[in-house]
Design brief:
- The protein has one domain (3-100).
- Helices cover 25% and strands 31% of the residues.
- It contains three helices and seven strands; from the N terminus they run ββαββββααβ.
Length: 104
C-alpha cells in the first residue's frame, strides 16, 4: 500500500521505512501549538496522527469514518499501528480499543 507521512513542519516522506517512521514519531518531543503532530496517511484517506501528548487519532478523511482516538500511547505502540496501516491492515488497526472523537 502506498503511504506518506507528514513531519512536524508539514514536510512529506513518501513510503517511509520503519526507521523513518520511528524517527518521525520520536520527533514529536519538539512539537508546539503550531506544529502539534506527525501523521501517516494512505492514498485511500486513512490517517494516524500522533502528538506530543501521546495521543493517537485514526480517521478516514475521504469516507468520513472516524475520528477515533487512544491516549497514553507510547512511541513503540504508535509505530506498531503505523506499520499495520502502511501494510494495508486497516481492519487490524480498526480492531484496537479506539474511543470516538478526538482526545480532549
Amino acid at each position: 500500500m502506498s503511504c506518506f507521512a507528514y513531519d512536524l513542519m508539514g514536510g512529506v516522506v513518501h513510503n517511509p521505512s520503519k526507521d523513518e517512521m520511528q524517527s518521525l514519531l520520536s520527533s514529536v518531543g519538539a512539537a508546539n501549538a503550531e506544529h502539534p503532530d506527525v501523521s501517516l496517511n494512505t492514498e485511500e484517506g486513512w490517517s494516524l496522527s500522533y502528538s506530543k501528548a501521546k495521543n493517537i487519532a485514526f480517521e478516514n478523511v475521504e469516507t468520513g469514518e472516524g475520528p477515533w482516538h487512544m491516549t497514553n500511547i507510547q512511541i513503540d505502540q504508535a509505530l506498531s499501528l503505523w506499520l499495520l496501516l502502511s501494510s494495508g491492515h486497516i481492519e487490524d488497526v480498526k480492531s484496537k480499543p479506539w474511543v470516538d472523537g478526538y482526545a480532549g
